[in-house]
Amino acid sequence: MAPDPWFSTYDSTCQIAQEIAEKIQQRNQYERNGENTTKLTVTIRALLQNLKEKIALLKDLLLRAVSTRQITQLEGDRRQNLLDDLVTRERLLLASFKNEGAEPDLIRSSLMTGGAKRGVPNPWLFEEPEETRGLGFDEIRQQQQKIIQEQDAGLDALSSIISRQKQMGQEIGNELDEQNEIIDDLANLVENTDEKLRTETRRVNMVDRKSTSCGTEEKKSEKTWRLASRSTRLTGRQPTQGSALEALDVRRAVGAAALGPPLCSP
Questions:
Q1: Reduced to 3 states, what is the DSSP secondary structure of residue 237?
Q2: In this predicted model, what pLDDT tens digit does every residue of 175-233 receive, in sequence order?
Q3: From CA 165, how far away is CA 110, in angstroms rounded?
Q4: How many whole angstroms separate alpha carbon 220 and alpha carbon 233?
Q5: Distances in Å between the alpha carbon of 132 and those of 78, 88, 129?
Q6: Nearest to 65 by CA among 19, 5, 135
């Protein structure tokens, strides 16, 4: 597999920065010896422009890799730190070039550490995490892709769980709606039954009052018959059924006017 283009560009950019530092030191040496530095100055300007373009390309590659999830967030932060150091180095090199002869400590240290070549430790990679230390570019990319796949699988599982919970919530809501309808129907049925019960209770009370009135009238009629019989014994006249019935009819008429139609027969 082809190496990671970001690290390839990064290595070449480090080599350009190293070359600029060497050229600046050489120019300063020429100036101290009174030699012509025009050619070196033109070369340094071209190298500084090339360094600026390389750094811009590294920024673009890093942004694209992070946005398309080709690398993890941890790897993106690590590369951003390397890029920030490279931008700082460019700024110091440019300042050294414009100071015309000033030689900052950065140039000396870069000359002593050497270029960023294959197999030579890069001084900016000393903080590399244990997970990627000693791995090649292809192995690091495969590891990152595996991590991304695991994260995708976890997100898919979480999405499935959330979908099931949503479905369960909807089913519970539908069941509650059905139970509420049943409760409303039951309440209406109880209310109708209670109303019928009160109506029947009033009818029973009315029937009971009428039955009590009829029994009272019959007792009064019987008493009237006995009084008539007693009067007959005293007067010698036989009581007639008509007189007793007339008395009973009178009492029933009075009771009917107060309670309604009679329930008992004569």
A1: coil
A2: 888 899 899 888 888 988 988 898 989 889 888 887 777 666 666 666 666 766 666 66
A3: 60
A4: 20
A5: 11, 25, 6
A6: 5
